[in-house]
Amino acid sequence: MGRSVSLAAYMLFSRFGERWFARKLSTSDFERRGIASTARPNGPLMWINATTVQSADTVLALTRRLLNQNPELACLITTQSQSTVSAFEGLMHPRMILQYIPVDAKTYIDAFLDHWRPDLSVWTGIEFLPAFVVQTRKRNIPTVYIDALMSTKSFRKYRFVNGMAASLLQRFDQILALDAPSKKRLQNLGAPTDKIKVSGNSATPLHHNETQRKALSRAIGGRAVWLAALTEEGEEEAILAAHRITRRSFPELLLILVPRHTTRGDKIAENLIKQGCAVAQRSKNQQLDRQTDIYLSDTIDEMGLWYRIAPVTFLGGSLVAKGGQNPSNAAALGSAILHGPNVSNFADTYKILTDADACINVTDSTDLAAKLEATLVPERAAQLATAAWGAYGDEATTDHVFDLLQSYFPKEVR
Q1: Suppose 227 and one of 203, 291, 305, 310 were both cysteines; which one would form an S-S bond, judging by CB atoms 3.0 to 4.6 Å apart?
Q2: From residue 86, how far is each of 115, 130, 147, 260 by CA, in Å?
Q3: Cβ–Cβ under 8 Å, residues 238 and 365
């Protein structure tokens, strides 16, 4: 393993610069100091660090699949930001644990690793903490890097500490690059050729209850249906306006509305009813029937069901300044994608879809209505869905990442 003067200097700073690393922490930031807020579960534990909001859906789907396959396995998910924590809240499997990752000071890293003793360490996305990678490998904990993304901007930054980057990349057992350009840049930084592969995006198709899908499909019958998924406050008015306009062409059109935060369900239902809508609220077990205008799904962990039912999806958080929602799951499950202009959280993903003519940008309620009406035509919806699935629906990618992570656990756990 190559030596790096800059990494050696950083490790000294990690060891003796605890006060600097903790300078922005409050007295209540125990987890950022390596003090766990819950006990380590018995049995094998996989630790996966989710660096961005964008990675939340992928991490949830992938870890849920691993947990379902391995009944004794538990998963610790760490992140650095409140926004990423919020992306996980309410969606966690019972054997998932969510914590803040400590800052990169050796004292805090040691406390974290002493407590959790992970059997596998998984890093995702754009960046990793140098001292954490070094200390994890010193303990002989297998360490892999999935969805490894190295943009041109990041490459230029890491090039200034090329020896440090090479030394860190050589500590990973396996690196699965998001795309060919990322693989090339990581290799140029020193990633070993025999340890790096292109896996593509590891987004796993979301699970669903097939019995419920069939029952809901029977209740919907031959009606046209669209989904407004993961909407944020301030978007429902525009969605309702677009729904009413589109109903002039599709009189029986059904809207399935899924707010990003399910706690808003009662308020949304109240507002819709005041405006004369016939609403069935799923959290209250209200039945969908022919008179229902809007089916309000204020329940958690059912997006796999809705993407399979609705041939057209508007992804929320994009008509307001929230940065949009991850389109990969809708793409993988064959729902044509509409979105607003604010998609900065997933800009690279939307660019891939846009370049493939696999999604449609809308600006406001009137534009949404016009483009929704065109997309509800089955041929157009199928065209968009096929293009999107081609970009993000490759099951071989998913299985490759899953098989790699699964291979680190003993056969008796499976």
Answers
A1: 310
A2: 24, 25, 21, 10
A3: yes
